[in-house]
Please model this.
Amino acid sequence: MIRIEIRTYLLLLALLLSACAGDAITRPAAIQEAESDTNNGLQAFSDADWHSAQRFFSRALSLYQGIDNQQGVLYSHINLAEVGLSAGDYPAAQIHLKRAGDIAKLPAFQEYQPRISLLLAQRAIRQQDYVQAEKILQPLLPEFNELTPVNTPDTIQLTAIASRTTIAFAQQQHESKWTQRYARALSLSGNSSLALQSRLLRFQADLLQREQHYKDAESLLQRALTGYKSVPLRSGIAATLAQLGCLSMTQSHWQDAQDYFIRAIQVFRYLGDQVSVMHNTQHLATVELELGNLERSNSLTEWLIERQKS
Amino acid sequence: MKTDPDNKTGHYIHKITYNYRERVVGLFIISAFVLISALIIISGRNQHFFEKRVTYYMDVVSSEGISQGSIVKAIGTEVGMVSAMNLTENSKIRITIEVYQGSRSYIRAGAKAVVNRLANISVALIEIKSDSINAPVLAEGSVIPVEETPSLNDLLLGVAHIIQAADEHDLLNKLETLLPKLEVTIENAHKIIAQIATGHGVLGAAVFDKQVEKELKTVVTSGSEILQEAQGTIGLAKQRLMQMQPLLNNAQYISQDIRLAAQSLPAMILELNEIIAKANTALTLINGELEHIPGTVIDTRRTLGKTDHLIDSVQSTWPLSNDIDKHKPNPLIPVQPLP
Model:
């Protein structure tokens, strides 16, 4: 009798213990490796190490392709396209976006189509193909009631509005309208992304600079710089410093301009953005000339000529 | 927990009744207690807490790298540990080894202990090697003969000795004083060779100058001329010998210095031989260890994989699973506006 009781209790104990345990995670090693590569790639991307990011994402892509994991393949193509855009390798970005677009046509992955379209538009903007960019952005933009979006926009829509505002400034058409739309959309969404908020501050500073409200413009740019630094977003930091340099130049504050351009060039150089390095060096050469540093200005100009030749 | 109102007789404890939840909680606590006890017992068995031990001894010259608790191995497995160290009358250190009863069969009569101080820095590896497995098991309390390898410290001391010996004999300084003398000697030799090559001097003229040939013929025919020529030749020879004097002096100095240096050479060669032998032993041991590295790496990787799996399983077990964040990182780069 006692034995039966003991057996029953043991059985109960076993059941009790087994109920406590969950399913052990048994994912294939290839997926674990690919996930690890993806995580390493994300880390490298946030560190602006484009080369390492490209290597990790390519390996992840290969591993996902090796087990026909379409979702992983899609993620890897999108990530590689982002790396291509940041590193200025637009043909590679185009190829990855094309492949990602093909996968996103499948019903299971259609939710990724807006992200791919946004990246295509960003690529077009970087290549100064504003007409094409505007065309791609059109379906991504929310419906507006004059300046206010009808519905609460999501992150993709907010980024699309930011991109559309960039086009407005580049084409010098309806900059104020799009900046206001961006501000209202951001406020309505309640999105606390510092990158998006800092971008808005820079658009607003640009408008204020045009209206010759230099002090307010500088205050907004300093706020944007603080925002970018706390993310940290290197490309934003560099762009803000360059913008501050231009603002100082407009006010003939040559010493400040020199400082901002030198700092901007250093960040652009870290990012490997040679075009921006040259563009800002050109500004710096002008500033040095104004400061009476003729020798320095000449050496910068010579360097620019050499770089243009090569 | 309630008291049974119907049961009015007997001790208070017999009136208590338990509901189902209380029983389950009690069961859970008891099971936890049983599990912990089992773990303690298993751990104790792994640590050989409850196993009988057999004592052996070994005498070592130096206790470097050996301490109480040092592991003793035989045929690659742990068979015991060092339990005590005492100084003996003949200035050696008696190490007491306690071998687990279950592993005693690995230690046979004629076994030798190897104290390897080169396997790990600061920790000696004690390994008992038996000649034959057919030999009887070594009697308890036996003293096992020891073979000690020099430590890394000893090897470095040997190298330091060589440098010290070289320093003591002032070899480097002597070499330094020799060099300028050798330089002068070579320069002199150069000058002499140059003079010979250009046909100047007696030897040069004899070898290269055809005029000498003609003059010699004339000397044969004319006695007075012979004398004159002989006088001139002697004068020139004397001059050349005077020129060669510094060269000979230098050669004398060199040979003296070399003789002094050579006196310390046999001792140095002996020391060098010893060092080479020690280095050879060290390299053989290191080589042996290196051969095990690939296997160790594979084992480590496998262990890490299993540990990872175990951690995953533990994380998915209640109550831990409640507290662990299941949020997986987004595999996509976050959406960002253009700078």
Remarks:
- Residues 1-129 of chain A form a domain with the Serine Threonine Protein Phosphatase 5, Tetratricopeptide repeat fold (CATH 1.25.40).
- The mean pLDDT of chain A is 91.
- The CA atoms of residues 47 and 296 of chain A lie 32 Å apart.
- Chain A has 15 helices and two strands.
